[in-house]
Design a protein that fits this description.
The chain is mainly α and 484 residues long. It contains 21 helices and no strands. The mean pLDDT is 85.
């Protein structure tokens, strides 16, 4: 769509609401399921497999995101969005009927395959109906969905499992998804100007094989042992084959325009860094609060919620800042905040207050909200309509991949430090997080574990600072212009 056509789209507010509903449905899924998992495990059993309930969802979602983005450019936004959302809702319904953990994991995989369409397609649809200058401001509304879901998800999940059957945490998605699809069917005026091309099946196959092998190795490294090396080899070989195929293909999965644009390459690199840096807080700050500080899960969740509050606030601010300054200035300011927030984690000590941890999380959230919004808007505004879907999808895929890489790297740093500092203790972090095990430890042993765990986590936070610093280098590659 041209800018003129975008500003003339009627009922854009209803399209925005429909997109926000779909995003909320996907965003709340992770938090609401995490809250209900103890109840699900108590009924279905299979505690040893429960990690796969989350991993398989993230895996199938990440693998499918770039493919849906490309399909949206070739076949149209509506058709691909409806297909993906229908797949997500079908998986949600089936999850509620699961009779054991195996079936639940299988249906979560189906859910993830559908979820891969929701996030990139909603962002692409909004970019289609709003002009470049308007997109920056609209991102504040879209980002607020994540903040609301981070608060509403755990509360809703806890209330549903307490008063009703746990299946409702999956079935609650159905009416939300149906309403979103009906609204887009009614008001989203998609032009009939898509290229008559087929999806590059060979390229898609190599991509799925490479990403599946890589993410499985990263997410399940501890369980797989030396098999991780075989999976990494498969990922590397499939990745090489993908690159060779893309260079020779007349219809590449990732059009050459993506690699020739400095803005698009920088935007993807920035989101890879953001995804990796944020895991320093998302995956390891709760361990500090509960283990080192002796806090409760509620306190850990409250601290993380501050990140979800800072993100949409900064996203809204960055939209206005971009219009008055430039993409580059806004991205650099966000990078400074991200570096500052991760550095604040290094000042935590065993007697730090919850306010200290929450403030660090808030600053990190503002940095991520500002940088991620700027990178996304810069990429969307530089992309033509014909490749906007894959450009938007690549941004989100990069962040997912970064999260997996960050978790693997920082997890390895933590495990190495714990093995070196506490070789005589098995699962030392678990011993100080578990209330019963913590109380059973002699005072001297408890203090020793806490001290060494704190030192180990400080190394994790230091790695997070180093990764976050990379965002400043990427921000310098973003153009100095502003949305017009």
């Amino acid at each position: 769509m041209s800018e003129t056509a975008q500003t003339q789209v009627a009922h854009r507010h209803w399209i925005l609401i429909a997109a926000m509903l779909a995003m909320f449905m996907a965003a709340i899924e992770v938090t609401i399921v995490a809250t209900a998992m103890p109840t699900i495990i108590a009924e279905l059993g299979g505690f040893s497999q429960f990690g796969w309930v989350f991993s398989i969802y993230l895996l199938t979602q990440a693998v499918s995101v770039p493919i849906y983005g490309r399909l949206a450019d070739l076949w149209g936004r509506k058709r691909v969005f409806f297909f993906g959302t229908s797949l997500f809702l079908a998986g949600s319904v089936l999850c509620g009927f699961s009779t054991n953990m195996g079936w639940l994991i299988l249906f979560r995989a189906l859910q993830g395959l559908g979820a891969g369409a929701i996030m990139p397609l909603t962002a692409t649809i909004i970019a289609d109906v709003y002009a470049p200058k308007e997109r920056a401001g609209i991102q504040g509304w879209l980002s607020s969905v994540w903040g609301v879901s981070a608060i509403v998800g755990p509360l809703t999940g806890a209330w549903l499992v307490q008063h009703f059957n746990w299946a409702l945490i999956f079935w609650v998605n159905v009416p939300i998804g149906i309403v979103s699809m009906l609204m887009l069917a009614r008001w989203f005026p998609e032009p009939d100007s898509h290229k008559k091309q087929k999806l590059n099946l060979a390229g898609s196959g190599w991509l799925m094989l490479s990403v599946t092998a890589l993410l499985t190795a990263l997410l399940q490294a501890e369980m797989l042992g030396y098999w991780v090396l075989a999976l990494l080899a498969v990922a590397a070989i499939a990745g090489y084959a993908l690159v060779r195929h893309e260079k020779r293909s007349g219809e590449p999965l990732f059009p050459l325009a993506l690699w020739r644009s400095r803005t698009i390459v920088a935007g993807n690199a920035g989101n890879l860094i953001i995804g990796a840096a944020m895991m320093g807080i998302s995956a390891f700050l709760p361990g500090w609060i509960q283990g080192v500080n002796g806090g409760t899960p509620l306190q850990a969740g409250s601290a993380l919620a501050m990140m979800s509050i800072g993100w949409p606030l900064a996203s809204t601010l960055s939209g206005k800042l971009m219009l008055r300054t430039s993409y580059r200035f806004t991205a650099q300011l966000g990078s400074l905040l991200l570096i500052l927030g991760t550095a604040m984690l290094l000042t935590l000590h065993s007697n730090s207050s919850l306010v200290h941890a929450g403030l660090s999380a808030f600053v990190i959230g503002t940095g991520m909200g500002m940088t991620s919004t700027t990178f996304l808007i810069a990429v969307q505004n530089s992309a033509e309509y014909s490749i906007r879907g894959i450009c938007t999808a690549s941004i989100m895929f990069s962040r997912m991949l970064g999260s997996a890489l960050g978790t693997a790297v920082m997890g390895a740093v933590l495990n190495y430090n714990l093995m070196r500092r506490l070789p005589e203790f098995k699962d030392p972090v678990q011993q100080i997080i578990s209330t019963s095990q913590r109380e059973a430890l002699p005072h001297a042993s408890l203090q020793h574990i806490i001290e060494q765990t704190a030192s180990s986590l400080h190394w994790v936070f230091a790695v997070s600072v180093v990764i976050a610093s990379g965002s400043m280098l990427v921000a310098r590659a973003i153009p100095s212009g502003r949305p017009e």
